Structure formats: C-alpha cells, structure tokens
Amino acid sequence: MQDNAYESEKSAPFNAVVIVGLGLIGASLAAALRKAWHQMYLLGVDVDGRACVLAKERGWVNEACRPDDALFTEFLANKADLVVLATPVAAVDDYMHMLAEANYEGVLTDTVSTKSHMIEAANSILPNPSIYIPGHPMAGSEKAGVDAARSDLYEGINWILCPDENTDPDAFQQLHELICGMNARVVSLPREDHDNAVAIVSHVPHMVASALMQLALAHVDESRSLMRLAAGGFKDTTRVAAGSPALWCGIAFDNADALANGLAEMTDILANLRSALVDGDKVGFTRMLACASDARRELPAAWVPGSDRLVEVRIPMVNRTGVVAEVTTIASSVGCNIQSIEIDHVSEGNAVLSLVLTDEGDIGQMSYKLVSAGYSVSFSPLSPKEHSHVE
After folding, report:
1. Cα 125 from Cα 119, distance rounded (Å)
2. Is the dihedral of CA 386, 174, 114, 33 positive or negative?
3. What dihedral do alpha carbons 251, 253, 258, 261 form, nearest 10°?
4. Strand pairing partners for 344?
5. Would you call 43 exposed, middle or buried from its count of C-beta atoms within 10 A (0-12, 13-18, 19+)?
6. Which residues contact 120 (CB under 8 A, 6 or more apart)?
7. Residue 5 within a domain
8. Which end of the chain is more exposed for a tag (fewer CB within 10 A), N or C?
9. DSSP summary character for residue 131
10. pTM for this model (two decimals)
11. Which residues partner with 109 through β-bridges?
C-alpha cells in the first residue's frame, strides 16, 4: 500500500477514517462519507467477514478487515486521524483497549445511542480521554445490517455531539464539518443530559410502538382480520417495533433508569386520558389532545436551512476553556443551527470562534444567553456568496 493512497482532498476534514462496525449505521456512514469526499481513505472493521466484503465491493471503504487483523492495528498507530465506533455498547471496551494499545492519538467518536458507559469507558481506558467526543446520529431503520445500509441515511437528520470543557476546539470543528458535509445538522448536548433526552424522543417511543403491536396482537383472531384493518397511521406509529429485539433490549438496559422514568411518565399520561374518558370530562380530554396537536404542528416537516439570511457570530476565546462546548450547547438550546465553525488562532494563547448560523432559532435569545454567560459577542449579516459552504 502506497502512502499517497491515504491522501484525501484538501477540503476533507479528516484524511484517514476507521469505521468500526459495518452494520446499518456504520456501513451507511461509510457510504455517506464516500459520497461526500470521494478521496477520503476509509477502513472498515467488523467481526463479520461478509460485511467487510460487501462494504468493499460496493466501494464504501478502501479496505476492510476483522478487528484481529494486523491492518487494523497498523492503521490506528500510523494513519488514522478519526475513529468512529459504530458497535453495540457491549463491544466498546475491547475496541478502546485496542486504541490505547496502539497509542492512537487522533479523534474518537461513536454512534452509540447511550452515553453513560461510553464516557466511563473512555475515562478509564484511554490514556487521553479528551480525544473522545461522544456522538449519536438520530437515524435508523427497522431494518438492520450492511444489506440495509444506504448513503442518504443521514441527510437532514440531527446528529448529537457532546463536547465538554476538555474537548479540543479544532477537533470539534473537524467533526462538525464532517457531519455537516453529509447534509446532517449538529445538535450539541451536555453529556449528562444525553441519555435522559434520547430516552424521551427515541427509546420511550420504541417501547410504545412495541406496546401497540402487543395490544393489537392480543385482539387478533385466527384469520388476523384486525391486522388487515390497520391503516397508515397505525403502520407509521408502529414501524420501529420491527427493529431488532436483541439490539433494543441492549439499548433499553443500557439506559434503564432514564427509560423507566420516561415509561412512568407515559403511564401517567395514559392514565389521565383514561380518567377523563371514564369521568366524561370532554373538556379536559379535548384539552390534552389539543396540547399534543399544537406541539406536533410546531415540529418542522424537514430541515431546510435558509441561505439568504446567514449570520456570523464571533466570540473571543481568550483565557477560557470549554468555549466550544458551552457556546454550541447554548446555540442548540435556542434552536439555532450552526452551519459552520471556524477557529481563528490569532496568537498562541488567543483565538476567535466564528460561527455561521442559518435563519433558524432565536438568535436574540442566543445573544442574551452568551452575554449572560460572560462572552463578548459580535453578530453580523453574512451573504451566502461570502460563505463557501453555502450553495
């Protein structure tokens, strides 16, 4: 293998990327990265030899191997500048030990849907835990495996990143650019908030979908005529229930406390609906339905960032750690989408964080929160022609 095989386009945020796990999520990531940056060098790693063969045959990776192959170790030690763990959480510790033994010094992220164990493992296993930036793409399918992978899986989705005060701002900038390059958007969350948040918007809904299918099955006769009556709404609501039981059992127990609390809240909501129905309280029943209806209508149908009203935010980073984590989290909390991030290193100890925002969210509230947090902030309109990332 020639060294120049690892060279990538200048615009690519990383040159040599390892994707560990070539199931739906990992193989789709490889396909999306290949689509966005054709010359980026990609190594796929999986315990399933067939997944390795298919990923290479489809052109998603340059090479693929099993984790015990010397190629993996050599790549970690000498070539890789980004590793993405797209495995079940049970496999994470072994791979982090491999990274530690190979003295891997690049950026590490993941696609695992829970973060508590990931963070504990990084802190206890990695020589330098700050290389780890927790990640979680809010995407998936009821289908699984490399056969279900597709290059557009991440287009328009939210991709959670959880930087903290130890995160290297330049590493976060690179990862942000990588994700946005696949037409996804980055949402920053504090690490301690991640598992509770995804329990409500992802894990509880899956359990509710499963419960609805169990309810329907309890009323199915031998001819299964009830299932033939299931309309589009029922099918849409229960689609995710077709997901892998083993995978979702693992996710549920990895996030058991947050999921249990979310299910308890859901039980209370259903109990309130039942009580209003039994008591004949049409006003209260209608009020609960209206509250849900109004909230649902406020959800955007799709992410379509405006390019005609871009705003640049410039924030000095002098003598303050954790700026990227704090600023991006504030932006996400008020619904502002960061189109791109740049860090202008004025001198060895001084830098300016420059964010380009689309026309989403409450920029005024973002400004207020940044100033309240002690930042010196300047906002200025930016023409799309001034910003190379906007077409």
Report:
1. 10
2. positive
3. 120
4. 352
5. buried
6. none
7. no
8. C
9. G
10. 0.83
11. 84
